[in-house]
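Lab manual, section 2.4: Encoding a predicted structure.

Procedure: take the sequence of the chain (173 residues), apply the prediction step described in section 2.3, and record the output as structure tokens. A sample record is shown.
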Amino acid sequence: MKKGTLAAIGAYTIWGLLPLYWKALQQVPALEILAHRIVWALLVTLVISAGMRRWRPVIGALRNRRALLTAGSAALLLSANWFLYIWAVNAGHVIETSLGYFINPLVNVLIGVVLLHERLRIGQGIAVLTACAGVLYLTWAYGSLPWIALALGFSFGIYGLCAKPPNWIPWPD
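Recorded output:
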């Protein structure tokens, strides 16, 4: 089996088990869990950047007002997404969080078509319509507007748009 396939299986397994982890931390406020995630991710990123001696993209981004605004927007959207995800799991809304991350690829397609002017081929359009029908059915079966799912799907989709590396950030080759 290829390394990429194993990495994908590992990532999806961890992602699938993550609600169990949040439930184990249910007595800890969601904001505190999120703060730890942010601080520890920053520290790991700094250590990796230092170890790889790849400071030029970091310094270049810090000197670029547009890059800071874009990264700041992406960070706010991702923080809101993760806060809602942690809170929702601990409040017993696991099904709605799952629906949110099922909706997310549809939001990504919507963003691609509407904002980035991408065109879908016929097979892609049929696949998107089939997935939309599934989401509509799950929403109907849920019995009410799944606001958590919609907020998670849209916040992560817009985050993805903001986090897309533009050509004006000096990324390493």
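Check your result against the sample. Residues 135 and 142 are 10 Å apart (CA to CA).
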